[in-house]
Give the backbone structure.
Amino acid sequence: MFLRCGSAKIPLQLCARTRSLFITSVRFYNGRGGRYEGERKSPRSRSRFSDTPVSLKKAKLIQIPFEENAAEVTLDELKDEGLIGKDVHESITRLGFEGLTPVQQKSIGPILKNEQQDVIARAKTGTGKTFAFLIPMFQHLINTRMENPFAVKYVIVAPTRDLALQIQTETQRVQSMNPTLKKFNSLTLVGGTNFGTSINNLVRRRPQIIIATPGRLLDVLRDYNKYFTHIDVKVLDEADRLLEIGFQQDLERISETFNKLNDNSEDHIRTLLFSATLDTKVQDLSANIMGKSECLFLDTVDKNEPQAHEKIAQSVVITPNLAHSIHAMVDHIKREVQSNPSYKAILFTPTIKLTSFISETLHSLLGRSLPILEFHGKKTQMARTKMVHRFKRDHSGILVCTDVAARGLDFPDVGEVLQLGVPPQTPQYIHRIGRTARAGKEGKATLFICESETPFLQYLAKKERINIEDQTEFKASEESIEELAKKLYDDEKLVDAFISAIAYYRANGRVFGFNDNRILSQIAESYGTLLNDRDRKIPVSANLLEKLGLSRNRVVQDMLNVQGSYRKHHNEDTMQAKNDRSRDKRWYDEAPFQNFVKRGKTKNQNFTKKSYNKTRGDNPRFDE
């Protein structure tokens, strides 16, 4: 029998089957896309990634606050209590640990004692958070080695590739000290590496430990989720960064997928969160990620103390504008190098374009007297990995970088952290300066800002309880300006660096209460100051000005050399205007995704999807 629809004949059986499928697909879901309580569960029949994560009930929060005179916990005590075995004890002892740090003392015991609790741990930078979850991890693997011995049981998620690779290195260090621990396999799944090789290692080596970034982990879960059915614990390192917008949605998808795939139950997996900048509000952000009924909040930071490490001597240099801040930074580095040939520092800049410009400027000024390394998300993963290993090995040098190096990375013997301009958020300031004074050592942190950025200091004191008392003012001399100007020339990199700075402060300045016109005017006049020509203005097209949201801002426009829009092609266009139009387009390369789209048109047919060229390993969404 047929059912007629217009001029078409539709078999009646097909109509009945379609009606049945439609009813089945909606019967077990409410209007919001989630299940009603008590209804049938079929995790493998549903899509692996639903648009709306299943909402979980908020867990009971058990707070363990900071204790000033808490009794010391040692490795021997943990062994005597039966919390860690002789293999883990032997491995950590052979590494030369003199004792456990506060976060390790406070978290290792609770993590091992009660496996029915999720854990949130907060500790200052450089206090050994990585070993606070690696020690319980190896003990758990030993305890459960007879249960699914070739299954993934621990998944560690990090926000950046470099941090994930560093965690892998630390994992291998622990394993190298004991033959029993060497039997466990670990695998890193990060962007910038060959996808096929990673899958080969996953299938052939059958690792028990996965260390991954969110983007690559999601891509592996799409087609190879059968290897993730026995997970016991997932760890979020630098959890506050992972729970930000963008990362958080991917973490929710990952957690939802893990829970549905788990052969034990949907609430079997424990979640451990570690970071230097966490508070109890993180529980609200992680409600869809943590699955246990109880959550333990372990705090090793006194609520009355600043969150920054107490062994870091902080100072700030205030200048008239960005150009003078660059001069102050250059003079500071020259003095330090002269007084200390083994000077080793990390210099943070706001944008990739500024990082490249500052790196080249330091190269031209310092020559070969000091190694200068340029480190940011546009570097290939191979180049970044080599750079990390080199800077860890070198006894002197300057790593000029963006915030991609701000979290978790441990570089030995870094004596000072320099910052040109303010960070995008106050927690980033804490993580940046945390690259020095690690493992009980002392360090320095110097911030170079212009007068219009000083509200950041009040904001930092209010939000993070960090008061920087050592404040000095600086204004470059005419001789210094003339000397530096001879090393510079008006090229695209210089222009792009200042345009990217305008975009950066346009996006982040209002958070700290900056006056838009004032700070943008100071950045604009810095261009002429650096070139030692006060009348020189930054060339910018009208179209780019519109993208920056400044097309109606007359104050800023008067400070810039505004060209015509590149959308209009007039015969009277000059070569300079054409160059400005091409620069206009290249400026959007600041977002790594744009480079990916250009390459993807010819090399990857799926470039418009949440995908990437698997043979090259490009993952632009997390290429910071």
Q: What stands out?
A: Confidence is low (pLDDT under 50) at residues 17-56, 565-574, 583-593, 595-624. The radius of gyration is 27 Å.
